[in-house]
Amino acid sequence: MRIDLHTHSTASDGTDSPAELMAAAVASGLDVIAITDHDNTGGWAPALAARPAELAVIRGAEFSTLIPGGGRLVSVHLLGYLFDPAAPAIVAEQARLRDERLHRGMGIVDRMVAAGVPISRQQVMEIAGDAPVGRPHIGRALVASGVVASVDEAFASYLAGRSQFYVPKADTDLISAVDMIAAAGGVSVIAHPRGRGEFRALDFDTVAMLVDHGLGGLEVDHPDHDDAARAELGSFVERLGLIATGSSDYHGTNKVLRLGQETTREEQLGRILAASSGVVAPVGPGGSLW
């Protein structure tokens, strides 16, 4: 069984619609896919409506969080699976984050416009559509305007944290996010815990503390992780009894990543299913609750 537990659609910063994502999953030979858009669940309903009969769908989201580390606040992405989307704390926080993303995105655009970069607020809003505004939407505007050749190039220059145009956003406290997902019956897994600067905060003792708050697992196999990172995270998983996942972090054409590039073992998915409360059941082959 081929299982990919971290993908994005146009409900956040992917380029495939939820329906296109379902079709692409089958074309890629996947048996199970999780739709995990950033800070929202807007892709769930259209994904399930378009789900091919042979594909199982795990509903999730990727929460943007912060935790202190190395004398600064470190960005950590947290995957939540099978949580109740109507849980009041999650509804309120996702609404706040949507507003925060819009404020931050327009701030970046305004700085670029003031510097003569040929993009506009309207252009970025049209690219984002109904999705929360994110830096990839600004990157696509930069590509469309001929400023850069790719979204990857945009992130390496105009959208980088060191850029003159960068504007921070106030993400959720990581411990609070773990608590929220657990309270909503879901299972939390830290996304790409060695993909960026997370090493500054996510040492063994911090991960162990998060387990005490209900953290379920770590995304060990990720395209951003080298062999050393996978070995280190594997040791964390073994010592703490955590779930180990593998995922592509697919974003369509926004990133050079393939669906199913990294996958999760079937027994690890079974642990996620067993650990969830069943408030939101996964949908399996034939439409059954799986």
Question: What would the keywords be for this entry?
Answer:
alpha/beta; 290 residues; TIM Barrel; 10 helices; 2 domains; 8 strands; globular
Total count of strands = 8
Largest sheet: 8 strands, mixed
Rg, Cα atoms, Å: 18 Å
The average pLDDT score comes to 94
Question: Mind telling me the CATH class of the largest domain?
Answer: Alpha Beta
Helix content: 25-40%
Q: How would you characterize the overall build of this protein?
A:
The structure is a single chain. Strands 1, 2, 3, 4, 5, 6, 7 and 8 form an eight-stranded mixed β-sheet that branches. 38% of the residues lie in helices and 18% in strands. The chain folds into two domains: 3-94 and 170-287, TIM Barrel (Alpha-Beta Barrel), CATH 3.20.20; 98-156, DNA polymerase, domain 1 (Orthogonal Bundle). The mean pLDDT is 94. The chain is globular. The chain is α/β, with parallel strands linked by helices and 290 residues long.
